[in-house]
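Task card 7
Instruction: Convert sequence to structure tokens.
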Amino acid sequence: MAFSLSGLFHSSTSDTKMVSSAGRGAEQTSAGRERADVQARSLPPGKTVSGEVIAREGDEIQIRVSRDTVISARMEKDIPTSMGQRITFQVQSNASGVIALRPLFQNMAQENTALRALTQAGIEINGKSMQMVFSMMQEGMSINKNSLQEMYRQVAGAADADIPAIVQMNRLQIPVTPENLQQFTAYKNYEHQLLASFAEVAQEIPGAAADVFAAGGLQEGVAFIDKLLTIFGSGENAETAAGTTAQAPQDGMPATGDTAAGTAGQTGEAGKETAGKTLIMDAALQGDSGIAGDGRDVTLPGAVTADGKTAVGEAGQTQPGEDAIPVSDREHLAQLVQQAGGSPETAAQIINGEMGKDALYRAVQELVRQADSPARQTAVRELFLSKGFQKVLSGKIENQWTLTGPADVGKKEVEKLYERLNEQTRALTRALSDSLKAGSPLFKSVRNIRENVDFMNQLNQMYSYVQLPMKWRGENAHGDLYVYTNKKNLAKKDGNVSAFLHLDMEHLGMVDVYVAMERGRISTNFYLADEKSLDLLEQNIDTLTKRLTEKGYQADAKLMLKEETGNVMEEIIRADKNISVISQLSFDVRA
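Output:
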């Protein structure tokens, strides 16, 4: 598939004011002025005006729109023009006899091509169509009659949509749906991190539970929190907890993480079966694409821990005291547990620090199931909604939905994470649909997670990419992993592959890592946000190279500062023209 690396087109925001007939120039007759007046009054917003620049002095410009009709305009900002140049403007507004215009193009050499292509395709020439065809040219796409007409149907149907985004989605072969368009824009604007949505879910659960108690009473409220605790409880089946099967449809959300064309395990072509559980991590860490094609086990270089140490080969172990209930919460939690029916022994264990968060979670879960009287139900409500227990629940959700260390960044572990995330968000949707309106904040947050994962799955029909929500050494860290795949190299099985890893970490900030492997030699370039982070990593980089060398690889690493923020979607959009699909198998994060 052909790519263009020329970047995105953004219409100029420079407005020009056009007034009919300034009376300047001998060419402009009174009849021409009258025609210009009539034309100016009849131009609706969105209409385009083309003309030849015949004079310019400062910000005043004269444009000939026909043989004897000249329009004077004022250029509010400095836009390069030259005599004889043809410029096309779009009408922004038309009020009080003054028309506000903006130029559609600053690259005038392509304007005539765009105009001819639209005319031949029978498409109205307006701001949308002109921006559409220019975006298609920028992306290296064909602008024949059929492709233009198909693209314009999509553009015309999206009132306020980002036209370059629609064009780019078509080039990337991502179905253009309102949900996908929203996610694509979020990815481009770096607003796509699953970790942020996870935090929103945890924050919104108390409010949702309180609403259910208020609307449905004690019995319904207790049943709702029982479902929530079962969904996130270890060893529980989330679908059973929700009281429904995975296939039941639900308004506002795909029941099983469906794509626009089919269900999990299908590609964009409806009904075509794929290996839905084949993960991108195969490409990054295993022999399928050659990064460990010689059979050696290697973890993708570049993972960095909170304190700046490289995380290659380190196990993600629970930190001492991580399961302990904070001292400040123990007494109040113990009191609430006793009020809900807990034994004095249980309360004493909480106060003395002998009971950890997991044990408390299970104890509360049992108390909820035994709440068979209004007094017990009221006490259970107060216990569940308490700040102390909400910390426990938030930690539970975080542990369920994040990778807990470098040892988890592998095919099976990432696969399990997304299986669990899919199952639990699906179960949450069922539970919420039974008790709350679809417009509730919690419902929207859960839906956003599912749409994000579904979008990621569709992206992976063509490109090898996955988000890595992580919790290392007590610190949340977001990761984007994108594997550049070259069809020619894959066919040769020569062990050459490269990848882009973006990390967002609390202490190091943003870290971009470019990894390339060629026949057993691994080169890693680290781009860091500031000198402090660079110095910290520099002190520990030998750990990475040493461990790779011990595994039989030649390794080198370079550290440098980076001024601009990394963006995985920009990396995919800028991908080399020769880059193709990694294989006919897909990474289905919903499976």
